[in-house]
Specification:
By secondary structure, the protein is an alpha/beta fold. It contains 25 helices and 21 strands.
Amino acid sequence: MAERRLQVTSRLGLHARAAANLVRVASRFKSSLTLQRVDGNAEADAKSILSILTLAASRGTDLRVVASGVDEQEALDAVVGLFSRDFDETEKPGAGLYSATQELRCKGLGVSDGIVIGRVLRLQEGTREVYRALIAEADLERERRRFRAAVRLSRRQLEAIKDRAEKELGRGHAYIFDAHLLFLEDAKLTRDVEDYIVRERSNAEWAAKVVGDRLLSIYTHINDEYLRERGSDIEDVIQRLLANLTGEGPKYPNLSEDAVIVSRDLLPSTIAEFDLNHVKAIATDAGGWTSHMAIIARGLGLPTVVGLRDFYQRTRTGDQIIVDARSGEVILHPAEPTLGEYQTNVHPPAPAPAVPQAVDCRPVSTLDGVQISLRANVELPAEFQAVRDFGSCGVGLFRSEFLLSRPGMMSSEEEQYETYKSLVEAAGDYGAIVRLFDVGGEVGPDVKERERNPALGLRAVRFNLRNKPIMRAQVRAILRAATAGPLSLVIPMIGDVADVRHAKKVIDEELERLENESASFSKVQIGAMIEIPSAVLTAEHIAGEVDFFELGTNDLVQYTLAVDRGNDKVSDWFRTLHPAVLYGINRTLQAARDASIPIIVCGEMASTPAYAVLLIGMGANDLSMIPAMIPRVRSVLSQIKAAEARDVASRCLKLATADEVEELVREEFKSRWPDLFPPNTLPKALENLQ
Ligand code: PEP
Ligand code: MG
């Protein structure tokens, strides 16, 4: 046995690239090579990168190198030599991807308020659960082969990525994939996974997850910021393996105190599942103002910037970041002066529109006496309290599908009953409207079964009619909770009167069953969400069969203009003021008036003051929006005349393009209400799309 004591002198300690070089050198020898911290805290196998990193050997750490075997002296000399040459790093650590600490500013779309300084937490899209399966004794060998095949596939992918990175970014930026390759083939990972498969008779996915999570937890506890961040590399590798085994994505990592979630895209259900005490802000590559993710983030008051295109790939977990949702900008690796500027500026998510002391929940009156009800849209039980605080006439829309926050999990009838009961209690005299689960599309209880074209697929009422037990449980919960106060039910994405009849048949059957069971329940008003063109065009028929309409302008824009509301690439085509959308709104309002049924406008349009004025101009008198926007909309509407709004709206309805409508709105609003609508509150002129 031969041993030597030495000290880590390189600035970044025994970091990933240095460790990779050490593994390469150590692996040339037959002898075992061990690194021991002199403080006795840890010991590592010098041939395993995963093991070396757990030493958390930062600069100044004293280590003992112990070699044992036929070539122990040569092995020891080679390792000591490597330490003295600072691990043969050809590039200064500062040149690599990790230390790419140059300030980087990216412009996206701010969809809420607030400025936050925090640390990046990368979250990959397509998150799915990994399930455990018990494998028959006879199949264990096949399971191990499946795992090895996934390792081989991952290796090929990583080698291809490394080659490309080398060509496009240079060697200094590609080294990290060497480290990923070493992680992937490290016996600490592969042997442990295979052992676990056999010992626990476990499927490969579960084994990889268990072993991966154990490794990750070691890195999360390392007391050195730089080395701790390497956890994200290991996570990348584990996720790649899992993806290659199953096509599945990652689990949620533990959230640090000041986590800024950076993702390509986020499922709304993922946000609903966050620990909101820890998540400080969100930045995503995809998304638009009306994507569900944005709506929820806004409702929760989380500073959020979407539409950042390729920002995700530029970040690493642990990077410092500023999210400025006011200007729609994110700043990665902010320089000192930028930080200084923002530190004095940071303000948490907006309780911006101050909550009045004595909140007025009554409808607001325009200057010429038209009464407008302002209600709240809520997504999560956590928001129920805000309903009264902001002076809402009850809850105009409860997006109940966010109760289904865990993939594959349905909320039971009993759980729903409790939720709807507390909703109706929070809503007060004006009551609440629960929407039947609008799952499918971008929201879904089971992301595993994503459809090719989800927005046009088994969404909303279609999902309900194809999943009757789920629908029945929700209907029963609503009918039972209605005994606690005024509660209504609205059916999402109605296509025509046939959809209404089918849904009402189920509701009637559940009413009858409850009656037969002598359960305590109340009949409820039933509404239809009008949000797709076929419903607009047959609105008169639908109006004859329901108690009220809700106008979902978010989907109405999406489906009328055939523009995906969550796709930032087409966000320039998502034109709320497109004349086709305005005709649809106008026609639906007219159909409700003709049938003498109430109609509530509940898309994001209602919460945008300038658009709210146009809605009033087309005859709307009931708007539902994010609670925090109610005071602002209330204030604007109390200072205009409905007659003037009607004049502007009727002129808009005569125009041919969204550009023309927006131009007219800018001009008219500027001259009629200059104090109410500063230019930044009006639609901006788009640059020529050509
Ligand atoms: C809408 O489509 O406008 C609406 C209110 O529903 P959601 O945004 O949940 O689709
Ligand atoms: Mg909708």
